[in-house]
């Protein structure tokens, strides 16, 4: 048997073009997978009811920057790794250097101070009065109650400190549960970070082949 091989065109040029196409395919597929994984993890966080602020802590980056490469790599990470890990693996959170953890109620969350989350100490500093401690009974948690408050009207809602006149007359004053006190909280597993990463890694080969073809 006799075989003959004939090349059409410049072989070196053909190979160079194939390498360039492969570099574009690999870099494009890695960028696509990196962005897809980041978006899926953000969707997991919001879907679990953990809010858009925590979701936006997921970031992605592809290397090398600004050029195609057969060795392209992507990284997805969170700027709040401890919080994410707690919701991905489950965690038992105990009060540190204190008897209780203070869990804010909806009323407390509506009374943000300067963009910060309201804590018992911050509330007392802001209002100039102490919270009232209500001991837990019959399996119910202890509470911290804000007193002498008035309900805000309008779209803003929430509660505010009562005026001097209202304090004298007692008209329109309310007591509001602001914090629930518990010795510990167990976070259930609500995120599947590892599973999402494995799914996007498994899709990478097909994405490279489609782009190269």
Kindly describe this structure.
This protein is of the alpha+beta class and 213 residues long. The chain has two domains: 11-90 and 189-212, no CATH class; 92-187, no CATH class. Helices cover 41% and strands 23% of the residues. The protein has helices at residues 11-47, 52-55, 81-89, 106-109, 120-127, 164-169, 193-212; strands spanning 58-63, 73-78, 91-94, 101-104, 132-134, 142-151, 159-161, 174-182, 184-187. Strands 4, 5, 6, 7 and 8 form a five-stranded antiparallel sheet that branches. It has a two-stranded antiparallel sheet with strand order 1-2. A two-stranded antiparallel sheet has the order 3-9. It is elongated, with a radius of gyration of 29 Å. The two termini are 33 Å apart. Pfam families: DUF6441 (PF20039). This is DUF6441 family protein.
Rg calculated over all Cα atoms: 29 Å
How many strands? Answer: 9
State the order of secondary-structure elements, H for helix, E for strand: HHEEHEEHHEEEHEEH
Helix content: 40-55%
Counted by DSSP, the helix tally is 7
State the shape: elongated
Arithmetic mean pLDDT = 84
Identify low-pLDDT runs: none
């Amino acid at each position: 048997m006799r075989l003959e091989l004939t090349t059409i065109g410049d072989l070196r040029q053909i190979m160079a073009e194939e390498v360039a196409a492969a570099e574009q395919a690999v870099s494009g597929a890695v960028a696509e997978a990196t962005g897809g994984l980041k978006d899926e993890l953000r969707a997991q966080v919001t879907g679990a009811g953990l809010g858009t602020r925590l979701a936006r802590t997921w970031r992605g980056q592809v290397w090398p920057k600004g050029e195609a490469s057969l060795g392209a790599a992507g990284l997805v990470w969170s700027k709040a790794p401890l919080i994410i890990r707690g919701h991905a693996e489950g965690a038992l959170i105990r009060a540190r250097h204190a008897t209780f953890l203070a869990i804010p109620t909806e009323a407390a969350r509506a009374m943000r101070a300067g963009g910060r989350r309201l804590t018992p100490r911050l509330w007392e500093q802001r209002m100039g009065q102490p919270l009232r401690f209500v001991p837990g009974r019959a399996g119910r948690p202890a509470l911290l109650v804000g007193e002498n408050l008035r309900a805000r009207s309008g779209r803003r809602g929430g509660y505010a400190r009562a005026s001097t006149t209202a304090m004298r007359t007692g008209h329109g004053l309310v007591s509001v549960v602001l914090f629930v006190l518990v010795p510990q909280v167990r976070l259930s597993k609500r995120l599947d970070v590892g599973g999402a990463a494995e799914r996007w890694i498994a899709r990478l080969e097909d994405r490279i082949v489609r782009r190269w073809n």
